[in-house]
Amino acid sequence: MGTTASDGSPTEIAELVRSHLRDIPDFPKPGVLFKDFTPLIADGPAMKELVRSIAERYVGRVDVRESQHTRVRPAVAVIVDWPRST
Questions:
Q1: What's the number of CA atoms in the CB half-sphere (13 Å) around residue 6?
Q2: Could you give the residue ranges of the DSSP H alpha helices within the chain?
Q3: Tell me, what's the pLDDT at 24?
Q4: DSSP code for 65
Q5: What's the rounded Cα separation, in Å, for the pair 14 and 20?
Q6: Angle, nearest 10°, between helix axes 10-19 and 44-58?
Q7: pLDDT value, residue 55
Q8: How many angstroms separate the CA atoms of 10 and 68, rounded?
Q9: Angle at 30 between CA 27 and CA 35, to 5 degrees
Q10: What does R_g of the chain's alpha carbons equal in angstroms?
């Protein structure tokens, strides 16, 4: 791990995410293959690349501050330099 996309293209970002997924078979029940993305969160440079890609793709098109994605929203806010209070 520890790799980041070189130009942030959608294909490279998809590979970045794919390379950081961990398979957990039979969770939460037999026959289900759970895809764990905590290795991505644990890899700071990779997570930063993903968040930067999200911010660049959607800033100006959607208001992420009002989205339901509360786990990613603070990181995107840092990347796009949103004001602390709105």
A1: 0
A2: 10-19, 38-42, 44-58, 73-80
A3: 98
A4: G
A5: 10
A6: 150
A7: 79
A8: 22
A9: 30
A10: 15
Q: What pLDDT score does 81 carry?
A: 64
Name the token pair of 27.
Answer: 């969770």
The type of residue at 80 is V
- What is the per-residue pLDDT for 63? 62
Domains, the chain, in order of start with CATH, read: 10-80 (3.40.50.2020)
- Peptide bond preceding 10: is omega within 30 degrees of 0, i.e. cis? no
* Residue found under tokens 């991505």: 40
Name residues whose C-beta falls within 8 Å of residue 62's C-beta, 6 or more positions apart in sequence: none
The one-digit pLDDT tens for each residue of the chain (86 residues) are 544 445 778 899 999 999 999 999 999 999 999 999 999 999 999 988 988 888 787 666 666 556 555 666 677 777 766 655 44
**Separation CA 60–CA 64 (nearest Å):** 9
